[in-house]
Amino acid sequence: MKYSQATDYALHAMLHLVTAVPNKPVGVQLLAEKLGVSQTYLSKMMTKLVKAGLIQSAPGANGGYRLRRKQEEISFLDIIHAIEGTASLFECSVNHGSECLIQQVVVDAERQMEQYLENKKIADLAKLMKTE
Amino acid sequence: MKYSQATDYALHAMLHLVTAVPNKPVGVQLLAEKLGVSQTYLSKMMTKLVKAGLIQSAPGANGGYRLRRKQEEISFLDIIHAIEGTASLFECSVNHGSECLIQQVVVDAERQMEQYLENKKIADLAKLMKTE
DNA sequence: CCATTAACGACTTTATGTATCCATAATAAC
DNA sequence: GTTATTATGGATACATAAAGTCGTTAATGG
Description:
Chains A, B: This is Rrf2 family transcriptional regulator. Chains A, B: It comes from Cohnella silvisoli. Two copies of one chain form a homodimer. Chain A has 132 residues and is mainly alpha-helical. Chain A has one domain: Arc Repressor Mutant, subunit A (Orthogonal Bundle). Chain A is 56% helix and 6% strand. Chain A has helices spanning 5-19, 28-35, 39-51, 76-84, 101-119, 122-131, and strands at residues 55-58, 64-67. The first copy, chain A, has a two-stranded antiparallel ribbon with strand order 1-2. In chain A, helix 1 (5-19) packs across helix 3 and helix 1 packs across helix 6. The longest helix of chain A has 19 residues, at 101-119. At the A-B interface, helix 1, helix 5 and helix 6 of A face helix 1, helix 5 and helix 6 of B. The structure holds a DNA duplex (30 and 30 nucleotides).
């Protein structure tokens, strides 16, 4: 079980958008160059972020992407869910009569991780980077 | 990102071993029947559990598997690690000069989940099932 | 010896992630 | 309006991992 590289790229792309000049769109070509990944591949992830309502896109000259919400309101979990989906990490495939106690435990554990990721905003990282 | 079905099977198999008669080995054929999975496939996971030191195996007639440790000392995390491995869920593939702050956040989040799974023992579930 | 049972390796199949290419649509600048 | 720019979408190829099967070997009890 691993987070996909796509999630890695999306998180880094969002961090770049946060630290970019406000309201000035950033093109996928620039982002792709900074991350060392192809434009066409990265654009798929950007499209997912758009559909999740995290960023806004603008076509045409001087177009690109910019944040849709305040940066304090965009959590790690938002980004991860946009790329990976929101399905549970664990689903019991054993056919027992009752509810699966094992699944309850693992899902509860997953909830612990998600709470942590929900409380972490990319704005937190942006602050850290400025003081370095 | 998902936990593999193999992990699901392993967790259920361990739960069966905990609730079985102590010190009497349980064969893979019986376990496989209860879980609705083939013997040969399940035996791969059982072998991993043996190598992880969670259970003991005995070949030959009346052989099978039984717990190696006390059931209060076998956690969900032990079983999951035995099947999935212990590698981190997230590894940054972007080439920046410094340490990856994003990776730190996600790894910390993962640690939250692991702590929860470490504190949950299969003995806890066994108790629950007896009272039902 | 014989039946039973775990362990191991080779293999097939299927699904998912990674990545590229090309066509299309929308917008801004001229 | 024309052109350059930029995002979006579909098709496709490739690599990797998961899911599952089969046959063989090895060890043990009766």
